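Q: Joint fold for the lines below.
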Amino acid sequence: MSRLLRRLAWSAFVVWAVVSIAFAVNALVPGDPARMVAGAQARPADVARIREQLGLNATPLVQYARFWKRLVHVGPRIIDPKATSDHATCAVLIPLGRSAVHLDFGKSFQKRQAVVDLVAVRLPRTFALAVAGMLVQLLFGVATGVVAATRRGSWLDRLLVGSSLLGISAPTFLIALLLQYVFARELGWLPLDGFGKTVAEHARCLVLPAVTLGVYGAAYYTRLVRDEMAVLLQQDWVRTARAKGLSPMRVVLRHALRNALLPITTAAGLDFGALMGGAVVTETVFRWPGLGELSVEATFDRDGPILLACVVVTSVAIVASNLLVDLAYSRLDPRVR
Amino acid sequence: MRSIRTRREGPSRARRLAPAALAACAAGLLAVPLGCSQALPGPLPSAHGDDAPPRRGGTLHLATFADIRGLDPAGPVDGLNLAVIHLIFAGLVDYDAHANPVPELADHWDIEDGGRTYRFVLRQGVRMQDGSELTAEDVKRSAERALRPSTPDPMASYFQAIVGYDAFAAGKAEHLEGVVVEGRYIVSFYLKEPDATFLYLMAMHTLRPTCKSAGDRYLDTWLPCGAGPFKLEPGGWQRGVSLRLVRHGGYFRPGQPYLDAVEWTYHMGSIAQKLRFESGQLDVARDLSEPDIARYRADPRWNALGLFEADTTVYGESMNTRMPPFDNVEIRRAVAAAIDREHYRLTQPNRISVLNQALPGAIADADPSFPAQRHDYAAALEHMRKAGYPYDPATGKGGWPRPIEYVLYDKGAFVFTAQLLQQDLARIGLRIRLRLVSYPTFITLQERAGAAAMSPGNDQLDYLDPSAVFEPLFTTASISPEGTQNTAFYSNPRLDDLVARAHREMNPAARKALYREADAIVCDEAPWAFTFGYHFFDVHQPYVHGLGANPTGVFDTSGVWLDRAGDALDRVLDGGLR
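A: Joint structure:
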């Protein structure tokens, strides 16, 4: 329990540090967010008025303090979005009777919407893409890795390893374009891009971006699983298991693969956290309106509130997935407990 | 007898062929989408001939490469949302095909007191999208809403000539004194001094009348509502994804608009637009890549279906006149003469046109006798000699002794034109060192005194009048230590006087002469070496009618109608992309 608490405290520190660094970088790099809102041709008087409206006249330290004070705070249980109160850009995080713990990322400079609303809309989309992408990566990667390891040196092994090299080397956008061309334009099986309006359409629109992420990631997992399994299959205990008459399938899946799961879990945990930050290229090519697209736009527009919200979400996702990986270790390997 | 292959015989046939098969597959996969040899599909036919009368109904499908910021005429605008704002909100003033201001919601106007009073008489019976009738009170309320200090309107100060603006903008007055309702359908704008640009300002989006639901305070959550031909219904805008406008049944022009709806899809790249356009899912393609534009233009079936939009931008090489070597006018003249603008044009021949004066194609006076900037290598060398830095092309000796930093960002043609500039200036002894930065950094450096000696300048006309070029870019009044629009920090009392007089001059001929003289001065003293103008190229299916080049450069679909043949529709439903 104390280990878990220590991990949680460390995770909170990591999130704070990452967000603070992001805040500092955002404040230090040249470029006036008010100018980006007003446009390159706006007159200085109009830019100054907009800067005042956005609260950018305050020093970076004051803005930093305001950010943390606002990020998580206690407020009323019910938020009226039309009200011009201090809580108009909040979302209820934890209800506490008549009051509640609020989450507030502020208002987007460019989109002029509560950032928490923007994130709430986009986060599930990115989560869906990350989960689907990870599933494809793991299913294909582990399956091909196991096959390659058990057929080591054969033409099949070389084909799979060669293909994985191609998958790792090919830029994501190229894979995306190929899939679009074949499955959307030529065969017409799947939508070219977009998000759709119904759950069924969302699912159909998700296939190609998920496979794009899958092809790229699966290649990595193929090589990882193959190398791990190749070593494990040479171990004495595997030979013993075979000598005891266990079927080859059982030896591979029950004994060797299970022991190879630790590095796979570590890599998958890190990858999932990164995917939650948004698969920028994939989201852009397929017009999948997730966090990646949002954060790229915010970076170009110097839209600080969105940028910091994306950093918070990404860092929390990575820290949480690492925490889960740590917990999974103890389940997978009793020696870690 | 069948031989039995052993491992000693070498690799199996499959193993030997596997690498070749892999390579062939990869090459094939890579080559197919590039589509180098693929012919363009034919246009989808129109049901009737071009001379058929307009037909009502249908949805026009469009796409853009990016998202839009907002739909409030009083809020921030960009190059994409203006096309939508103009459909939702009609203005008192619009432009005719020749870029002259003409009445829209106004029935007519009177200009009095030598240009200090603009009295607008509104059309009667104009219905807003909420069903109410447009009145002079709506015009005043909308103007005050847009110019109120709490409104994020980036163009509010354009209207500082209105009497009482300063007190209103400072929050010291509740109402804008200079906007006066003089009857249910009459509203007057009283200005501090004569202003010949005011009708052009009124043709912008900023003060377009809003429905009463907008109130007199800007609110981000307001559902846009105006008097334009199309309206936005609740849920019609999925931010970052799509937007659907539907016909405003009470639009004041009888029988219009023809379309039931206009739909935009956002964040659609050029390849996706092309594929969807070819399958009939998009009716107009606007963001095609340069090679694709060339292919469409070269195809006789498509050539007549292309449309060049108006050229309302000014691009040039901005030279900081307060930093060496550009504080020397002869160096600037040398640069203006050294640049071969035709080479610039060739970087994007379908979107770029040569520009050698301050005014873009949409408002330029096409007078061949005008003393514009022209490529003349011998003259450039002579200007370098006069500047005191003669350069000998034969030996490569002479010229400015130090490299000159050129700040740019990676967008459009800049990375290519910057290299052309490097080559052109090297031939006269000016060595340019490129400094590539992000766009926000670029803006900061370019607009700060003493931060950028040279940089690419560009200006998109906010309204179709020469004042939109000369006042922000070249007058002393627009210089400020931070955030200057006069990126050359150019100051010339004679030019200031000409521009100020032209701003007040109500006689069109006299005004034109003043701007011509101003143009000649900036061409000669060259705070900018003007280089090119930029325009969009659209290609549309034959069944899209009424799509014309709008003089403002804003993509205008208000007069479009569709006449799609049944087989074309079937093709989309049966075989198109889903």
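Q: Anything notable?
A: Chain B has three domains: 55-63+234-309+538-578, 90-214, 313-534. Residues 313-534 of chain B form a domain with the Dipeptide-binding Protein; domain 3 fold (CATH 3.10.105.10).
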